Amino acid sequence: MRYNKLSVNYSKTIYMLINSNSSQSCNFEVEINDSEIKHTTCIKYLGVYIDQYLSWTEHIHNLEMKLSRSVAMLFYRIRYYLSNNALRSVHYSLTYSHLQCAIGVWGGAGKTALKRLNVLHNKVLRAMTYIALISQESHHCIKS
User: Fold this and answer.
1) Which of 16, 18, 37, 71 is most deeply buried (CB count within 10 A of its CB)?
2) Residue 6, Cβ neighbours under 10 Å: how many?
């Protein structure tokens, strides 16, 4: 790496072991050039939280927090002042984009975790449209 004038920032370098069995644990230390590399159980990479069991619980929890903030803070307050097209644009930019980001990777998570996201997404859609009930199977934005 010295030939390309690149260097490793050891204080920011971490490693994670991906394991399918939660009962197994591997405790060892990794050192590079006499600097110990820290171990983590979850890592954020390109906006996606990857945990050591590939269960996507941390990523889904993060999405739940983002959607909850959108519902509580924004949609119930701005829906009276914006047109349906403007609300749809806000929805696509603040919530739907987060749901679609890397869905091919984390979309295979367990039904229980995905159901919580579906419930929150329905809350966003109800807040936007004043509709009291939307199908639990709804995964797409309301069409005009």
Assistant:
1) 71
2) 7
The whole-model pTM stands at: 0.72
Would residue 57 be called left, alpha or beta, if left means φ above 0 and alpha means ψ between -120 and 50 degrees? alpha
Question: Please, is 114 exposed, middle or buried when counting C-beta atoms within 10 Å of its C-beta (0-12, 13-18, 19+)?
Answer: middle
pLDDT at 90 over 60: yes
Number of H-type helices and E-type strands within the chain: 6, 5
Q: Long-range pairs for 113-120 at CB < 8 Å and ≥24 separation?
A: 113/55, 113/56, 113/57, 113/60, 114/60, 116/60, 116/64, 117/60, 117/63, 117/64, 117/67, 120/64, 120/67, 120/68, 120/71
Residue 94 is encoded by which pair of tokens? 């603040």
Q: Helix 111-129 to helix 84-91 angle, to the nearest 10 degrees?
A: 150
**Domain limits, the chain:** 56-129
Q: Which two tokens stand for residue 30?
A: 């990794």
Question: What mean pLDDT, rounded, does the chain reach?
Answer: 80
CB atoms inside a 10 Å sphere around CB 65: 11
